Structure formats: structure tokens, C-alpha cells
Amino acid sequence: MSGISPGGSKVKKRVRIIFNPMNKVVEVERGGILLDAIREAGIMIRSICGGHGECGTCKVILDQGEVSDISTKYKKWLSQEEISKGYRLACQTRVLSDCEVTIPVESRVFSPKILLNVEAVIDKINPASKKFLVEKPLPQEAEGGSIKLRGYLGPDPKVSEEVYKKILLAGNEEHITATLSLTGGRPEIIYVEAGDKTGSNYGLAIDLGTTTIVAFLVDLTNGKILGKMSELNSQITYGEALVSRISYAGTPEGLRRLQEKAVESINDLIEKLTFENDIKKEEITDICIGGNTVMNHLLAGIDPSYLAYVDGNKKVSRDPIIRKSKDLGIHANPEAYVYCLPNVSRFLGGDAVGDVLASGMYDSEEISLLVDMGTNGEIIFGNSMWLVSCSCASGPAFEGGGIRFGMRAMKGGIEHVKINPETFEAEYTVIGNMRPRGICGSGIIDAAAEMFSVGILDFTGKIVEGKTPLVRKGVDGLEYVLVPAEKTAIGRDIVITQRDMDYLMDSKGAVCGAIITLMRKLKISIYDVKNVYLAGAFGAYSDLKNATKFGIFPEFPNAKIHPIGNGSIAGAYAALLSVEKRKKAEEIAEKMFYVDLLVDPMFADAYSESIYIPGSKEFFPTYGF
Q1: 177 forms bridges with which residues in the sheet?
Q2: What digits encode the pLDDT tens for the residues 113-124?
Q3: Using CA atoms, how far apart are residues 48 and 396, in angstroms rounded to an integer?
Q4: How many CB atoms sit inside 10 A of residue 309's CB?
Q5: Exposed, middle or buried, 573 (CB in 10 Å: 0-12/13-18/19+)?
Q6: How far apart are CA 263 and CA 520, in angstroms?
Q7: What mean pLDDT comes out for the span 15-42?
Q8: Are 390 and 597 in contact (CB under 8 A)?
Q9: pTM, entire model
């Protein structure tokens, strides 16, 4: 029902929604979408597809109130039992009256298990931002005259009129400190302080992830990491998948909102880091960011719509995106430069360049493989002479997405699995040592490899019936009961379904097929690869033997395996502390040859070979067939 305002226009009725167990209350216009109300309340809820009814992850329970469905898509994702208990999909529900809604545990986004360790070697600390004392006497003119910096031997720095006047006004001070930045091309004095402040100069290295953002506060005078913090990217409720964010950013309002959400998360981290270390935000004079191509675009407010199309690869600039913090709304020194590690293609960005920089593979003559597994799998072969890369749509399965009881690596997630070959019962470990509420990526890989080993999964990825009562028929075909309801936190059996396995097999085939495609193009065998660098949580937490047994990537008998941790933050940290590392990052991006698998005929053949467990003897001499 609508009312009439004093000016004669209609005023939509507002309704009140209570969200449990958070006990949060919001008022929204009647007829609004429930997912939008959840976002407005600041509640983190799963939404892989970004609110299009295509993933079924934004489940809520309607305790009381009147709502309506905006489509029938919910029928694909909700069982009759769930519907009878009041379950709805928030993105497909329109609010018609005051309501009370419960966000069930399986839909909530908890703080994930974050990888904070870095592997980065800095030969010499030479940051792009340095502080110098201003030489006296100062120029007498109000305009003109060069500013001399003690110990600085480079070309005359650029000085804005505002900064120049500040220097002259501070002329009576015993010491004047100028911050010099090399990021913008020509050296530039970006900040002036009274007194000798040369010992207090700080920078931020940031991993701008799709799901999480990690920030390191760094002392630029000695390279010491003063603090490490992380938090969920506030964009997550607008879609966990990159394509969902690209779609949402298709309007100016959507792009503005996603840019603000990324900055909001960064500013939260800055607030905590500066408070803990008792420094002023103005003392942060340089910021270096590693992020994928889409995230870099969203942060800078660049429309990413063209990245949704294949020809977007040719349009992606390999120059670093550079802005000033004041232009982005980041709470650091307003004149501090923000340097984003350069992108290579639509789905191979500055985070992958950071991986290469951190691994050191570009400094070696030996052939190396680098794999960074996430929603997008990034595959890079190379050495000091050449680099060849591709990205594959591995999907979110390896991060727990797209799996019926899948979840990210958060508290309550099963992270490792072992199946007894006699009883077929699963033993497992859970993040947070609590009752499980789902299974995360490393646990799914373990479970698949173990199911294959004990014979309840065949080489085509089909669940085998008849060996144990734990394999039964379900709504998505056969399913294996991993954890019975009485042992879970959600009061339901946690199962792995045939539909889950089909999705996982597709993801495994995409990754292995991508690696095989590049190997064949390069005419190299599994014996030629001397180093395998595994970036991110996949390399840190997954059982690599099980990943190979399942056939995610080939065996490399002569290779050393190097988990390098968070390569994106490590690369950003290296580039923050070294102008030379920045130049190397730009060289890496420029030199890297990118193979687009979407239009490559070799990939189709390699994929078809890779949808068996584990694969052919050519690539799996120990486990293959």
C-alpha cells in the first residue's frame, strides 16, 4: 500500500525485517528483494551467482511475515522438506510485510582461513617512496627555484604549487622533511612535514582478492612487516564469482557501489593496522596492490564489462593501473600513489604476476610450472627466457563452491578426509575443531581421491553402488554419506552427490587439460619440468598426493614442489619495497604470452583426455592407465 506525500507523489510503504541470530533490524521499501535487505543490514551471506537464482547458496528461513516469489528458480535448489520448513532463496523473494528471517548456518559467511605467509626475497630495499630532509637555504621566490633534498642524487623532482608553498612556509623550522615518490614517472615531492621525520615512512602491500583482502603494514625504511590483517571483501554479497561482479558493475551505480565496497574493506584494515601500531594514516605514503584483472578494474572505477567477452584479452592494458589514494577514497596520505601490479589478460591479472615475481621462476634457467588454483585456475610455464600462460574455468569447486555441502575454508569446514577401506566410513578433520557444517576445497579433493582408492568411485567419476549402505540414492543421483546428521552442526547428513562429482570432474578436467595443452604447445614432457610452484591456499592446505592421484595435475618426477603461500601479497610486498621489482613485474607482464583456451582447438582434446581418474600413463606414470 502506498501513501501520498505532501508534494503529491506516492510514497512506498516501508516494512521492517528482523534477521536472526544476528538480531539485526532494517527497514526497506515494501516489494523489495530480500537479498538486497540482507546486504543493507551488512550481513555477509553466500551468493555465488550474485543474486540471479543460479546457485542456490543464499538460503534463508522465513519465520514469519508475508513474501512472494519472483520466479520458480527456487524449485531447482530447495527440497520439498526445506520448503516445508520455510526455506527460501533470498534473491528470489520479494518482501510484502514486516518479517522475521533466520540466516541458517550453511548460508552464513564466516571469517575464512587466510594464508598470510609470504615468500619474497628482496635483495636491496629501494622503495618508490622515500623521505629526505630539505636542504637549506630555501629559494626566496614565492614561485620558481628548485628544492634540494639532502642525499638525493636523481633528477629535479616535480613540485606542485601547493607543496612548494608549504615548504616555504616551513622555512623557520630547524628541519623540513619531504616525501619523494617515484611512482608517477617523474620524481615528485608529494608531502611535506615539519621536523625530521625521515625515520617514519610506511607503506601498504595489499592482496585484493575476490573473496578476501589481506593487508601488510610495512616500514619502508627497513622492510619490516609491522602488521598483517585480513577480512572478507565487502563485495562478496554482490556475487562470489567474477562474472557476477562484472554483471553487477554493468551500470554506473553498480560500478560505484562495488568500488566503494572494495575501498571500505581496505579502509577497515588500514584503521586496524594504524591503530595497533600507533601511526598516523598520513604516514602511509605508498600502496602496492596485487589483484586479478576484474578486481583491479573495480578498485579503479574502470568499467569491466568488456572483460566478459573473448576479444577483451586484446583490450587489456599491460601497463600498471596507478591512482592517488585521494582519488580512490583510501584513507592513507591523500597524495600517496596506489600502484596495481600489471594485468596480462581478462582472467590473468596482477595477482598472477605477483606469483611469478614471488616464485623467482623468472630468474632461473630451469623450466618451471606455476599453478594458482581458485575459481579461475592460472597456469604458467617458463624460465628466465620465456613465459607462457593460460587461465582455465576450474570453477569454484576447489574452493568449496558449486558442491551441495561445499563451503569456503572457514570454521566448520571439513578440510581433510580419510576413508576406511573396510567399513567405508570417513575420518575427517574440521577447521576450528567443531562439528562440521560443510566441506571445503581441500576436503573435497581428499574425499574424491579416497573414494576412488576404496572403490566407491570409478575411473569415470561415477559413484559405485552396492559396496556399502553409505552409498544411497538421493535427489541428485547416488550419494555418499560423508558425515551422518547426528554428527553435524546443521542436523542433516553431509553427503557427496553424483552431481557434485560431475562438477568436480569437470573442474579437474579443465585444470589438467590446460596444463597438458601448454605442455604440448611447448613440446615438453613431465620429465622436463624441474620446479612446480603452488600458490595460494590450494598449495598450502591441499594434500598434493591426493590432488595428483585424482588427476588435477600431472606427475612431475624430476620436479621440486614449492608451496609459495600467498603469491599475490608476496609480489605486492616485493614491489612495495623495490623499484627494481616493479620494473621486473612490468617486464613479466609484457613478456608473458597468453593462450586463450576458449578458442584453442588443442584444449578440447586435452580436456577430453583429462576427465578420467587420474589420466593417461603419459602424464601419470604411477597412477595412470
Answers
A1: 133, 193
A2: 555 555 556 778
A3: 9
A4: 10
A5: buried
A6: 42
A7: 92
A8: yes
A9: 0.84
Cross-strand partners of 338: 287, 323
Strand order in the sheet with 477-483: 471-474, 477-483, 494-497
On the 0-12 / 13-18 / 19+ scale of CB atoms within 10 A, 36 is: middle
CB atoms within 10 A of CB 124: 10
Cell of 9: 507523489
- For 358, residues 6+ apart whose C-beta sits below 8 A from its C-beta are 118, 119, 120, 535, 564, 567, 570, 571, 574
Sequential DSSP letters for 95-150: E-S-EEEE--GGGB-PPB----------SS-B-SEEEEEBPSSPP-SSS--PPPBT
One DSSP character per residue, 334-352 reads: TT-EEEEPPP-BTTB-HHH
What number of other Cβ atoms are within 10 A of residue 21's Cβ?
Answer: 10
Give the ranges where 159-202 is alpha helix by DSSP (H): 161-169
* C-alpha distance from residue 89 to each of 60, 265, 595 (Å): 6, 26, 38
Q: Please compute the mean of the pLDDT values over residues 106-134 and round it to a whole number.
A: 77
CA-to-CA distance for 625 and 623, rounded, in angstroms? Answer: 7
**Residue 142 pLDDT > 50:** no
Contacts for 151-159: CB closer than 8 Å, 24+ residues apart: 152/180, 154/187, 155/186, 155/187, 156/187, 157/186, 157/187, 157/188, 157/189, 158/184, 158/186, 158/187, 158/188, 158/189, 159/188, 159/189
The answer to whether 610 and 519 have CB atoms below 8 angstroms apart is no
* Whether the Cβ atoms of residue 211 and residue 201 lie closer than 8 Å to each other: no
Q: What does each C-alpha distance from 452 to 63, 456, 549 come to in angstroms? A: 42, 6, 9
Classify each residue of 143-160 as buried b or exposed e, where b means 16 or more C-beta atoms within 10 Å of its C-beta: eeeebbbeebeeeebebe
| AA letter at 561 | I
pLDDT tens readout for residues 284-320? 999 999 999 999 999 999 999 999 998 999 999 999 9
pLDDT tens-digit series, residues 368-394: 999 998 778 899 999 999 999 999 987
Q: What burial letters (b/e) apply to 233-263, b meaning 16+ CB within 10 Å?
A: bbbbbbbbbbbbbbbbbeeeebbebbbbbbb
Amino acid at 34: L
Rounded to the nearest 10°, the torsion over CA 309, 315, 317, 323 is -70
Asked if residue 178 lies in contact with residue 192, where contact means CB atoms within 8 angstroms, the answer is yes
Q: What is the C-alpha separation between 162 and 608, in angstroms, rounded?
A: 63
Q: How many helices (H) and strands (E) does the chain have?
A: 17, 31
Q: Other CB atoms closer than 10 Å to residue 314's CB: what's the count?
A: 10
Among residues of the chain, what percentage have pLDDT more than 90?
73
For residue 9, name the pLDDT band (cuts at 50, 70, 90).
low
Confidence tier at 31 by pLDDT (50, 70, 90): very high
For residue 371, what are the β-bridge partners?
A: 379, 534
